[in-house]
Amino acid sequence: MKRTLITVAPTGAEVPKADCPQLPTTLDELVAEAKACEAAGAAMIHVHVRDDRHRPTLDPGRLRETVSALRENTAMIVQLSTGGSVHDPLDARLDVLRAAPDACSLTCGTVNFGDDVFSNPWPFMAELYRRTQFAGVVPEFELFDLGQVTAMTRLLEEFGPPAGGKVHCDFVLGVPGGLPATVPALVAGVQALPPAVTSWSATGIGRGHLPVLAASLAMGGHLRVGMEDNLFFAPRRPVTGNAELVARAASLANQLQRPVMSPAEARELLGL
Ligand code: KMH
Ligand code: ZN
Predict the structure, then answer these.
(1) Which of 88, 97, 105, 129 to mutate to test the pocket of ligand 1 (most atoms within 8 A of CB)?
(2) Is the Cβ–Cβ distance between 67 and 81 less than 8 Å?
(3) How much is the pLDDT for 254?
(4) Residue 48 Cα: closest atom of ligand 1
(5) Whole-number Å distance between alpha carbons of 48 and 57
(6) Which Pfam families match (predicted)?
(7) Coil, helix or strand at residue 28
(8) For residue 70, which of 36, 39, 47, 250 sits 20 to 30 Å off, Cα-Cα?
């Protein structure tokens, strides 16, 4: 039976705390949320850190402190975001690796991001990828658009396999400017993947969350859920926290006979 990796993305960089008080933005809130999500079935956590005023930050000390706190309190794989916010400079995003996470995100191209631009020029991606190889940090290739599959393939061809030898990517569907959060978009993305890919997950932002989740399970993929991507559990019913999104994903995975992976199994999947 093929098991399911659930990654939780609890915070993100876009939602203001003032708009969503239940968003975990302090270290204590993040750790409490991480523990609840692990108990509900998450094996990896995708982390964006906030400052004392709840604004996104890539402060190196805060990143290190967050990695340690999550390691002390959970067994989950700690994946730091190198995407940060659309306003973060590229050099600060490269420096995220200095916090020595288990894993990191690595977005495979520039994409319009609502009214903003999420900038990932080739030289930045190549430098970040080489640094992950050097540091032994496992990248998760983030794919917001179809052309980004081509760029991921180029990274693998030019620089060889990631640390750990496995190739894991994640479709982030539904950003205004990228692929929509629909089943046909996910199918197109999966069909375009190169044979080097050993595992993939998907998340649908907003309304497309559940169709993408169900299709991903049906197609043998893994799942990302969390308040970075979804603030509503159902129409007009805001999420109370990340754990209920994880619990629902775990329940659907169980029903489809794709039971959730433990963190130890997820480490094996990702070559950690
Ligand atoms: N916050 C977005 C601009 C990642 O974490 O690597 C980028 C993002 C992707 O969330
Ligand atoms: Zn992110």
Answers:
(1) 105
(2) no
(3) 97
(4) 5
(5) 8
(6) BKACE
(7) helix
(8) 250
Residue located nearest, by CA, to atom 9 of ligand 1: 83
Distance CA 146, CA 184 (A): 12
Per residue in 92-136, pLDDT tens?
Answer: 999 999 999 999 999 999 999 999 999 999 999 999 999 999 999
Q: How far is the CA of 247 from the centre of ligand 1 (A)?
A: 23
Domain boundaries, the chain: 6-270
Domain 6-270 top-level CATH class = alpha beta
pLDDT tens, residue by residue, 152-186: 999 999 999 999 999 999 999 999 999 999 999 99
pLDDT digits (tens, 9 = 90+) for 187-219: 999 999 999 999 999 999 999 999 999 999 999
Cβ–ligand 1 distance for 43 under 6 Å, the answer no
Interface confidence, given as ipTM, is 0.99
Residue type, 77: I
What six digits make up the tokens of 9? 């993305």
Give 205's DSSP letter.
Answer: -
The response to whether residue 221 sits with its C-beta less than 6 Å from ligand 1 reads no
How many whole angstroms from its chain centre is CA 182? 18
List, in order, residues 6 or more apart from 61 with CB less than 8 Å away.
none
Q: Quick check: 103 and 79 in contact, CB under 8 A?
A: yes
For the chain, the straight-line distance linking the first and the last C-alpha, in angstroms and rounded, comes to 21
